[in-house]
Amino acid sequence: MFANFDFDVIRRALPYLFLDGMTFTLTLTALSAVGGITLGTLIALMRLSGFRLLGRIAGLYVDFIRSLPLVLVIFWFYFLVPYIGQWLTGSPRPIKVGAFASSLITFIMFEAAYFSEIMRAGIQSISRGQPAAAQALGLTYSQTMRYVVLPQAFRNMLPVLLTQTIVLFQDTSLVYVVSIPDFLGAASIVGQRDGRLVEMYLFAALVYFVISCVASFGVRRLQTRIAIVR
Amino acid sequence: MIEISHVSKWYTPIFQALKDCTTSVAKGEVVVVCGPSGSGKSTLIKCVNALEPFQEGSISIDGIQINDRKTNLPKLRARVGMVFQHFELFPHLRIIDNLCLAQEKVLGRKHDEAVGKAMKLLERVGLKDHAQKFPAELSGGQQQRVAIARALAMDPIAMLFDEPTSALDPEMISEVLDVMVDLAREGMTMMVVTHEMGFARKVAHRVIFMDKGEIVEDAPKQDFFGKPRSDRAQKFLSKILSH
Amino acid sequence: MNYHWNWHIFFEPNPTGAGTYLDMLLSGLWLTIATSLCAWIIALITGSMIGVMRTLPSKPANLIGFAYVEFFRNMPLLVQIFLWFFVLPELLPNAWGLWLKQLPHAPFYTAAIGIGLFMSARVAEQLRAGITSLPRGQKQAATALGLTTTQSYIYVLLPIAYRIILPPLTSEFLNTIKNTAVAITIGLLELTGQARSMQEFSFQVFEAFTAATVMYLAINIVVVVAMRLIERRVAIPGYISGK
User: Cα separation of B134 and C51, whole Å?
Assistant: First the structure.
């Protein structure tokens, strides 16, 4: 079955796969996670703010994004971002947006909807006495959120946030649909060029598997440690 | 110091939590509020520092209206200490940081100054050695003493206690009450929601009895324990003093 | 924005010669529904078996279930689809591989099975969580009545567990529908794929994607409403209040 396997194809492609492809994938994952969690936290705060209109808008955004396939959202932003850029900069034609910037915007906007649900659950899991005690000490709303509620919500939800980040890491492979060379895209390019799709896809699968496994193992250990501290 | 006049509060249009409550706490006075559960006593004390909104009436602290839109509530609350039934220490912060947070963020004290103040208060409540621990590592009674120290760190002009001992195991109640008695004897203005009638006998100046959202009895301690005027207060007292 | 909107595009004939652009999108919609239903059936059946295995009092069964879930959870769906579509036929004996490659509707079968197995790992996790959330006494009571392990699962544990996990299963079904869009990469002309080809033929990017978006929203609403009806239908009186 593996008799006519060409392992040398993989060896020769390693620098390209990792220095270009994996670097793109990991950078995109990290920045999208940071951006998504930040934006998601803001959305969650909007939903819980008590301003009905603001909460409505945030809720609609979350429900809207969450009912669309990521592939469709990637297409949307891929075509839409140049027009938004044109509108923002006032240039006469749609501006050119790089592959990285376009994917980053897409993933931040998409993942924010999912992260906001996690943060919302985290904020709601904190007993009402906590913000009351903070306010009784004279802390303002934003100080209460910043020093008392959000640190606890973030800490309680850390395993879930990290698990979602592993999902995000896997989801970045979908930029394939707009021909952006992330790790999977790079593997695919090499595989098609050398007629060695089998080797390249198997290798890509193995790499994703190992990284995700190690990461989720780490999350599980973190989870048990947090459980002990509490 | 604390003036409560004609305060009414509705949770829903039909359910009235407070009915036309009027009372006051003078400077240096210790007032105990008691009554059956659901009588509105916790709601009333939470209205005093605007943790609960109310629809009618007014409350003022040290001459400042709390239901005035122009009042800076965080600033006012910083001057009134509050102790909660479930302690509400911040579980993600060490004991020392629980005491320093509001000192630094609200009063703008320097970190060293805040730590100095915090250590002095921890020593006073007998928990100096626990400064570096997290709240979950302390017993309930210890946590509540920390919570009192946390409120005192703000140099409050008055202290509110919302059933401070009712979530505690019996053997821990006295260590918390001792701290409160000392505080009362030093002349702190205190409003205390509690069932601890021993505490009331010892240090209270006045006792307020509430039932179904109303202030039924508001009398000097001697009168209240001597012969309450209302039936409801008599019944309540006989129930909690009969054992 | 100098984009030229043309909402009439949907009623213009599409380049395949069979009907309008709207017909094209609708055929994509049907394919999305058909693919996700097939995938969901596979996910439910395999996922249930694996989920049960993970709760059985048998080390080997636990281990197999664990390995299965980890295998399908730790690879991107797109990579899994590629493995089934491009890699599997090459790894099989020649004759089988050839047969697979010449199979009509290969993208459809690949998508249904690939997405079905991917989702089965998630269904398994949900079911396991549902079963383990049941009070231990349930299993013990069933055993005490003389039921075998199989019987206690069929008559006691699973009927309750499925009801508990109905809401998360709804969102997993919605995920299945959304995931069918990934099959665009192996040439399946489901809804997103048809919108994409409409965009390529007509250059009306935003009309095409808007229409697809509206259709996805409609599917979501239908599924959510339908599941809510089912939830109410199967609810056990007084047990799990239909959240």
Answer: 39
| Residue range(s) defining the domain that contains residue C74 | 18-234
Sign of CA dihedral C137, C139, C142, C144: negative
**What are the CA-CA distances from residue C157 to residues A58, B125, C45, C209 (Å)?**
39, 53, 17, 44
For residue A66, the distance in angstroms to the closest alpha carbon of chain C comes to 9
Look-up: residue for tokens 């249904």? C112
Cα torsion A128, B93, A224, A212 to 10°: value is 90
Residues of C in contact with A92 (CB under 8 A): 2
CA distances from A37 to A44, A113, B54, B64, C87 (A): 10, 9, 36, 41, 36
* Span between the terminal Cα atoms of chain B, in Å: 36
Query: Is C9 inside a domain boundary?
Result: no
**Distance (Å) from the alpha carbon of A144 to chain C's nearest alpha carbon:** 30
C6 lies in a domain? no
Which of C184, B102, C56, B55 is closest to A134 using CA atoms?
B102
Three-state SS letters, B99-136: HHHHHHHCCCCCHHHHHHHHHHHHHHCCCHHHCCCCHH
Q: What backbone phi and psi angles, to 5 degrees, belong to B7?
A: -85, 130
Query: Whole-angstrom Cα distance, residue B67 to residue B75?
Result: 14
Q: Which residue carries 């249009």 as its tokens?
A: B13
Q: CB distance from A226 to chain B under 8 Å?
A: no
How many whole angstroms separate alpha carbon C107 and alpha carbon C110? 5
CA–CA distance from C13 to each of C3, C9, C25, C194, C214 (Å)? 22, 8, 12, 14, 21
Classify each residue of C38-66 as buried b or exposed e, where b means 16 or more C-beta atoms within 10 Å of its C-beta: bbbebbbebbbebbbbbbeeeeeeeeebe
Min Cα distance B94 → chain A (Å) is 12
Residue B131: how many CB atoms within 10 A of its CB?
18
DSSP strands (E only) in B51-195? 56-61, 64-65, 80-83, 158-162, 190-193
Run of H or E residues at C154: none
Q: Is residue C64 included in any domain, yes or no?
A: yes
For residue A147, give the nearest of B46, B101, B134 by CB distance: B101
The number of C-alpha atoms within 13 Å of A181 and in the hemisphere containing its C-beta is 13
> Tokens at residue A198, please?
């089998």
CB atoms within 10 A of CB A212: 19
**Kind plus residue range of the DSSP H or E element containing B23:** strand B16-25
Q: Is the ipTM of this complex over 0.85?
A: yes
Which CATH number does the domain housing residue C76 bear? Answer: 1.10.3720.10
Residue B7: C-alpha distances to residues B24, B38, B56, B150, C107 (Å): 12, 17, 5, 29, 71
Q: Are strands B56-61 and B64-65 parallel, antiparallel or unpaired?
A: antiparallel
- Among chain C, residues having any CB pair with chain A shorter than 8 Å are 1-3, 70-71, 73-80, 82-83, 86-87, 90-91, 174, 177-182, 184-185, 192, 195-196, 199, 205-206, 209, 212-213, 216-217, 220
Subunit contact B86:A127, Cβ cutoff 8 A: yes
pLDDT tens by residue, chain C, 243 residues: 567 888 888 888 888 777 888 999 999 999 999 999 999 999 999 999 999 999 998 899 999 999 999 999 999 999 999 999 999 998 888 888 888 888 889 999 999 999 999 999 999 999 999 999 988 778 877 777 778 888 889 888 998 899 999 999 999 999 999 999 999 999 999 999 999 999 888 888 899 999 999 999 999 999 999 999 998 888 877 665 433
Token pair, residue C120, equals 């089965």
Distance from CA of A182 to the nearest CA of B (A): 39
Task: In whole angstroms, give the CA distance from residue B10 to residue B6.
Answer: 13
| H or E element that contains B214 | strand B214-220
Q: Total structural domains in chain C?
A: 1
Establish if C82 belongs to a structural domain.
Answer: yes
Closest by Cα among B118, B78, B73, B117 to B95: B118
